[in-house]
Specification:
Largest sheet: 2 strands, antiparallel
Number of helices: 18
Strand content: under 5%
Order of helices and strands: HHHHHEEHHHEEHHHHHHHHHH
Helix content: 55-70%
Structural class: mainly alpha
Shape: globular
Strand order of the largest sheet: 1-2
Length: about 475
């Protein structure tokens, strides 16, 4: 169980965020509040308050950013994007949970048929969703979208996109230090700091060594975030000069070696495939490939439902590469089959939360399915409506930017947008196997959508872009200094 330090960290994060907003320019403070919160705050630990969404490492930083920006600094964050299809998806994402709640108010009772006399297990009942929970579920959907609209509001410019890349490189360079400790000694940092281990320890053992996870939920989450930083170092190396280029080149080499020390095959493949694409291919080519992969991510559940995916051929290839990886992949496919069968019983609006979407033993109510891919979790929880809303909002920025890009001179397009597109695409592909959707993913999607809107309506952004807008608190001297710098 988490110790008192975990609770203190969650409670103290608003204070830490205020300090960041006082000392850093606005966009940089927003970015570090979200990124540092994800990397540092305790996993699993949360405040489960009645009638409100759980406060944890995903929701706490987003809420704090929104409150400080909207209510303290009076920086308007709109939840109403310009494209009509984006507006429709936002409405579906937020309000589509209403029919999910209304169609899942029944309690699921599991019975034993031993001795020919059914007996109800009171501890084997899964409660139904209540109308009183509706406000909490809708609020949670809105909180999930905060990074999306924060990215659209503050990081739609080339300067903001570069800030994201720099922040990722710096964050992971520092975060690699505890990662190296765990690679050498075994994952212990979360135990030392927060008093518990957050996952199955056997998942950290690979190739005769250990995979780090520090304060994240799983080693795959850690290595995927390292991949984000590696891609960011590549784009910064590509568009920097002189000594700065040398520094980013060293960071690129170090992060590449460190990623392989993390011993996660999927992220290694992402790096091998996407770094050359980012470094040596034009943006149009990068975007076409990412759009194709985005389409695959959207239609994958349909292909799985119609048994179009050649699972046997994929398993044979995995077996030839590594029997251990083939066993892991086969386990994922088996669980997906069970979860698809469960989801098929309520395909439109899903089963809702509280584990109702999971497959359980009919007698004991023991959970016998372990969902891995984000798509099957969303599909089982919110049905097709929820899946279309979430994947639509995540992939729409790719399609929307692709449409706007066709009408632009490539030389006039931001050189840093490519890394956000590839980071988002890597996550979409990884979500087919893992539930690796995090607030940062939403931030990237929002930044891409905002940049697409900027290209379509440049007159809306005709005022000079101040990347570093005002801080939370400034002395007159600091304010005057910033004004002189801007002018």
């Amino acid at each position: 169980m988490p110790n008192s330090i975990a609770s203190v960290m969650l409670l103290a994060w608003p204070v830490v965020s205020i300090i960041l907003f006082q000392r850093l320019p606005l966009e940089r403070a927003v970015l570090w509040c979200l990124v540092a919160g994800y990397l540092i705050l305790p996993p699993v630990a949360e405040f489960d308050l009645p009638l409100v969404p759980d406060l944890n490492k995903s929701t706490m930083p987003s809420l704090v950013v929104f409150v400080l920006c909207a209510f303290v600094l009076k920086k308007r964050i709109s939840f109403w994007p310009k494209p009509l299809i984006a507006r429709a998806l936002v409405v579906l994402f937020v309000l589509g949970v209403i029919p999910t709640v209304l169609t899942n108010r029944d309690t699921l009772i599991f019975q034993s048929v031993q001795n020919a006399a059914p007996t109800v297990f009171f501890n084997g009942a899964v409660p139904g969703l209540r109308l009183i929970d509706l406000a909490s579920v809708i609020a949670n959907q809105l909180i999930v979208l905060i990074p999306f609209f924060v990215g659209r509001r503050f990081f739609s410019s080339p300067e903001g996109q570069r800030e994201i890349a720099i922040a990722l490189v710096i964050a992971v360079l520092f975060y690699s230090i505890p990662g190296l400790i765990e690679i050498r000694l075994s994952p212990q940092v979360n135990i030392w700091v927060y008093g518990f281990f957050q996952h199955d320890f056997t998942q950290t053992i690979r190739q005769g060594g250990y995979r780090p996870l520090v304060f994240l939920e799983h080693p795959l989450w850690y290595s995927l975030f390292v991949t984000y930083a590696l891609l960011s170092a590549a784009i910064l190396f590509k568009f920097s000069k002189d000594k700065t280029r040398l520094r980013y080149g060293i960071a690129l080499f170090y992060l590449f070696i460190f990623l392989f020390l993390c011993k996660s095959l999927a992220t290694q493949l992402y790096a091998i495939c996407f770094i050359p694409l980012l470094l040596w291919f034009p943006l149009r080519t990068q975007l076409k490939i990412c759009v194709i992969l985005g389409v695959v991510a959207i239609v994958y559940p349909m292909l799985r439902n119609f048994e179009v995916i050649p699972l046997d051929a994929i398993m044979a290839q995995a077996q030839a590469f590594s029997p251990e990886r083939a066993q892991s992949l086969g386990y994922r496919f088996d669980n997906e089959e069970m979860m698809l069968g469960r989801a098929a019983e309520k395909p439109l609006f899903g089963w809702g939360g509280w584990g109702r979407n999971l497959v359980r033993d009919i007698e004991t109510a023991e959970i016998i399915s372990i969902p891995d891919g984000r798509w099957i979790i969303v599909f089982g929880t919110f049905g097709w409506f929820g899946y279309i809303a979430e994947m639509g909002l995540l992939t729409l920025p790719l399609f929307y930017f692709w449409v706007q890009m066709r009408q632009q001179n490539p030389k006039e397009v931001s050189p840093y947008i490519g890394v956000l597109i590839i980071v988002l695409t890597v996550t979409l592909v990884d979500m087919l196997l893992n539930a690796t959707l995090i607030p940062f993913t939403w931030l990237c999607a929002g930044a891409i959508l905002g940049y697409g809107e900027r290209l379509k309506n440049p007159e809306m952004y005709s005022e000079p872009k101040r990347l570093f807008e005002g801080r939370l608190v400034m002395s007159p001297k600091e304010g005057a200094k910033e004004k002189r710098t801007i002018m």
